[in-house]
UniProtKB/TrEMBL annotation:
Belongs to the NXF family. It comes from the Eukaryota. Residues 407-429 form the TAP-C domain. Transmembrane segments: none annotated. GO terms for biological process: poly(A)+ mRNA export from nucleus. This is Nuclear RNA export factor 1-like. GO terms for molecular function: RNA binding.
């Protein structure tokens, strides 16, 4: 590829790359309509020439552009793109590249060019996707007619955690510290004390409509379906997060999948693919279900996770709060994958200062590049001479209401946990 790069014009010529004599001499087969080849080329561009201005992919038998959907991220300054003499059949393939701010585009020689009634319809369809386009197939385009004045807008900066009162903040922070101390301990039996006997739990993961036969995470498919003939490949699945058992929890159109959950609660499973939640029987506590155990397999980022507790959500009988953050899978198969999550708790008071969860909703997705870059950044330590008491993690706040840490002690605990790599339970010891 270095021979095909023009550094003076910042242009990469990948025309007819599968017939390159140097590659053929070395018995290297590069076919850009194969996903692995296209992704490899994009990664080379990102690693070596992210300043690329012009890219020629003509005469490569490309019939789809889905594998090029990351091109904007890999080459954000790209202005010229040549896709001529390929096999693109519809202009809708260009939707995968809509984020590019192209000034020149070549599409002649593709079957899609013959599907328009006239040139004006052709130009209109292409310009709908690339409004700043100046040249199409080597011809200057007329100036676009526009009556709208584009006003630059900036989104407000993201705020941190929000609590209606200091007392509410102390209650929630103490609850979360004790909850995740047990969660990360390897033995989650103590989590039973945190849940109401009629509690409901749900897990939601994103589902790719472009690839209906696999989850966007590439998780292993479910190995078993019960009571129907729906192929396993049509259901997205996170095998690390859900394990098969005798407890029916998921209902599709006539099919049932048997799953196990980590809490003694009525279990729900939600997948954004048109299926619905269905109440399942109470499940026994299982340390390896629902989410992978944190001890040795997952590292969460306790700070800066964001907690929001709206003023209207707190009453004498009900408390609703949201926890957002990231965690890292560090088992041998995940390769330190970073995930983002949002977790919504609905709890009722127990005793004088305890909480009992009646509804637990978790949404997990792939972390974006910004989140990954900021993940697990070591904060500056906060010096203090105050001792940190050793709390018991045998049960949740409902069974140990007397355990209280000051704000300064909580900060010390979080900082020490981050610096040492230990979870909160061992950091307190």
């Amino acid at each position: 590829m270095s021979k095909r790069y023009d550094s003076a014009n910042q242009a990469l010529n990948m025309k007819n790359i599968h017939a390159d004599p140097d590659l053929i001499a070395q018995n290297i087969d590069i076919v850009l309509n194969r996903r692995n080849c296209m992704l490899a080329v994009l990664q080379i561009i990102s690693d070596n020439i992210p300043e690329l201005l012009s890219l020629n992919l003509s005469d490569n038998k490309l019939y789809r552009l889905y594998d090029m959907s990351d091109l904007q991220e890999k080459a954000p300054n790209l202005k010229i793109l040549n896709l001529s003499c390929n096999q693109l059949k519809t202009e809708y393939e260009l939707d995968k590249l809509k984020g590019l701010k192209l000034e020149e585009l070549w599409l002649d020689g593709n079957p899609m060019c013959d599907s328009f009634q006239d040139r004006s319809a052709y130009i209109s369809a292409i310009r709908e996707r690339f409004p700043k386009l100046l040249r199409l197939d080597g011809h200057e385009l007329p100036a676009p007619i526009s009556f709208d004045v584009e006003t630059p807008t900036t989104l407000p900066p993201c705020k941190g955690s929000y609590f209606a009162s200091e007392g509410l903040k102390m209650l929630i922070v103490r609850f979360l510290q004790q909850y995740y101390a047990i969660y990360d301990s390897g033995d989650r039996q103590g989590l039973l004390d945190a849940y109401h006997e009629g509690a409901c739990c749900s897990l939601s993961i994103p589902f790719s409509t472009n690839h209906p036969y696999r989850s966007v995470w590439g998780f292993h498919r479910l190995s078993c379906l019960v009571g129907g003939s729906l192929p396993c490949s049509t259901l997205p699945c996170a095998s690390k997060y859900l394990k098969l058992s005798i407890h029916s929890a998921f209902v599709g159109p006539g099919q049932r999948v048997k799953l196990d959950f980590f809490a003694s609660a009525s279990a729900f499973l939600s997948v954004t693919s048109g299926y619905k939640l269905s109440r399942g029987p109470i499940s026994h506590c299982h340390a390896g279900s629902f989410l992978p155990p944190s001890s040795g397999q997952v590292q969460r980022q306790p700070v800066p996770s964001v907690v929001n507790a709206a003023p209207f959500s707190f009453q004498n009988t009900l408390l609703c709060f949201t926890l957002s953050g990231i965690f890292k899978e560090v088992d041998s198969r995940s390769r330190d994958t970073v995930r983002a999550f949002t977790r919504i708790f609905i709890a009722v008071p127990v005793g004088h200062s305890g909480l009992s969860i009646v509804n637990d909703q978790i949404f997990i997705r792939k972390a974006n590049n910004t989140e990954i870059r900021k993940a697990f950044v070591m904060p500056a330590p906060t010096p203090s001479s105050s001792p940190v008491p050793t709390p018991s993690t045998e049960s949740m706040p409902s069974s140990c209401p007397g355990l209280t840490l000051t704000v300064e002690q909580q900060e010390m605990l979080q900082n020490f946990s981050l610096q040492s790599g230990m979870n909160l339970e061992w950091s307190q010891k």
